[in-house]
Sequence to fold (59 residues):
Amino acid sequence: MKKREKMENLFGLEMTYEKVLALTKERMGIFGYHPHEIKAAAYKWYMELVEEKLEKEKK
Fold:
């Protein structure tokens, strides 16, 4: 298994960080947000997805 495939399946999420970042760029770029703000928002969104996944696994 390649390193990229491992990263995509790290948390068993349907969306990878790269997909989240692309969607965030698409949505926030329209409004003129700076790149560092977009990356921070994408990271926060991805971490929320990871936390939700981990909470579901605990139950």
